[in-house]
Fold this sequence. Notes:
The chain is an alpha+beta fold. About 25% of the residues lie in helices and about 25% in strands. It has 6 helices and 13 strands.
Amino acid sequence: MTMAQTKLEISEANRRRYEELRAAGQELTPKGLPDATPLDGVPISPDAAVGREQVPAGWYATVRLRRGEALRIIDDSGRSSVALIGWREEDTSERVNCADTVKVQWSAAVSKGRVLLSDMGRVFLSLIEDTSGAHDLMVGGSTPASTRATFGATTRNTQENFLAAAAKIGLGLRDIPPCVTFFAPVSLDTEGRFLWMPGRKRPGDFVDLRAEMNLVLVLSNCAHPLDPARPAATDPVTLIRYRAPPPGSDDPCRTTSPEIVRAFEFTDRLFA
């Protein structure tokens, strides 16, 4: 057997293993995900609520979440999209990572039962409730250039909101990771081109994010770059911070796949 044959066999074995893992991630995991949250369901107990604020169109909010707390983001009018980035409070070199979130879960679709991962392989946020399932991990937020091209003038945009928020906590441009955008119904056509699916946006849609570490989050309420609405489709959104119930052993976010189980084990070591 030649060295070339050995390398080919190793390559083929790795490819087979990759295809097995991909099949498990893309075909089996979604069957174990919970149903979407009803639009009128899961009220937050007044005793659990910690704080509430409204973010005007075009503006941003900085939210600190302790491990075990949750943040409900509500698209009150059904016209807004909310971009989010964040860092681990004790070490801001660890941040949310959209690429690893897609890679480890074998899917760019995030919905109830999925998680957002950090760039250290730990679980950043869990989606414990979600009425929408229409969120974007691929496109990113608006910039001065994109708003100028779209609206003919530079308007308030997500990039500058993130920079302003980061500066207030001693961070800069290099600390800003790619964002996840909630209530942004982005899909792909057969040619791999991005599509906007307006029928998936509804007034009152919400998503609940449970912090799996102590976090600093920034949320920008600016129009998504692909939203075709003119003028910019953005209204105020509501944020409610609350104490989430402790996850059980059968918590769907913690049990969707072997990779996620390991990510939670790695995360829990920080707080053992």
